[in-house]
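protein under study:
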Amino acid sequence: MDDLRITIDTLSEEDKRELAVFIQRQKKKKCRKDLELFQLLQQKKRHKPEELINRLYPESANPVAYYALRKRLTRHLTDFIMLKRMEEDITAASSIMGTLSLASYLFDAGVGRLAWAYLRKAEKLAAANEQYDLLNAVYNLQIEKADSEYADKLDAIISKRNQNKLAADEDERANIASSLINQRLQAVRRQGMDLNFDKIIQEVLHTYHLTEAVSKRPSLLYKLMSIARSAVLARKDFLTFEPYIISQFQEIEQRQGFIRAHQYYRLSLLYMIAHVLYRNKKFTESMRYLNLLHQGIGGEGKSHYAHFFPRYTFLTVANLVFLRRNSEGIALMEKLLSSNSLALSTKDQLTAQLGLSFNYFAQGEFSRANRVLLGIKRSDKWCAGKMGREWVLKKNMGELILQFELGNEDLVLNKIRSFERTFHDLLQEPAYRNVRQYLLLLKNMADQPNAVESSAFFQQVEQSLEFESFENTDIQAMSFYAWLKAKMLRRPYYDVLLELSKSA
């Protein structure tokens, strides 16, 4: 496997175009071997090293020059990614590192007064944003340059450095605790046991003397909630998670609130709460938290707009579907996809397309829904690399149902066979039992469309799909069931979906 190609393939098409320009930033030549190699590595055909060498050096194969060229392209790629990460950084870490680097350069250039001014700026920025590791680096450089006439008093610097070491140590213990909590939650999930977030988290926090720190450090709470949420998403255990995350969020708000440097964590927690409320079918309450999120990204959270606005839109649209305002949701999603002022990431683009397809489907506009999915001009393998296999599974399920609605029963049967081959391993797992049964029902529907309204088929649906109760049924699973029920009752899908969501 070519590791350089693998790294390049992680870039979006826009990033690849920017990288091509970046490679030529110093000298624009008509023939650049590094750019030529970059273009060869983007081709669908995977060339062996010998083929690449012959393509790049047709007159005389030169392996030494080729491997030197790969190193040069790797440096371009590393520099490009570093600059991109700095542009996209929302933690202020890149700004601090840049200011610290500038101060170090000015010391070397003999401009002590200016260097110390930038050192103080880096210190202030790191302290305000709780970047304790970087703040430690700032203090170490201040101590090193304490003999300058422009320096602060050495005793004061050492005192601040020692105090900061305590906070940095707390961060290290928090990282250890987070990894342990993640490991324990995953073990519980694999064993099929009930998730007891509070007990698992509190035991580890007590061991590492971090119980008090969580209520004072929004960054730590955010990290812990992200870990717990990952376990929840895998287990669909939203009912347990809802009161836990809300109580944790409210405790911080009541005790000391969120300062400006903590806005990213506040907005992230608001999104998590809105999402879990949506999955628990509490759509009006979810919208209330989404409104708080929207106010946040329009106020002190403006720097986080590009990150949060697409997520805000997706969740708002999802809620609007169940509040009988689907047409409003369609307008919002179309506006997001056509926006020139906000460049969507690849993940957001795919999420928006799949979401809009569902909105059209709920509206009964099957051809438009199909066109949106056809607009995803990427293979399932590529999408799985970007979005995960479960996202591709849901996309394929949507395509199956769409083709049935469009009257393409033969195509449905072909797609089901392909689906079963592609997701054979997942379909063997207990968590995907309903998906497996759903495919069998779809096969029967495609084979005998007229039997869908029979009592025998109705009984088959009730016996084959397992739901503990509609209150505990995941909203996405309920959406697929609603379509089956709508076909059996010969009623509009959207009406049946809304009825089921209210009875849950």
In short: Residues 60 and 305 are 53 Å apart (CA to CA). Residues 3-88 form one domain. Residues 154-191 form the longest helix (38 residues). The chain is about 75% helix and 0% strand.
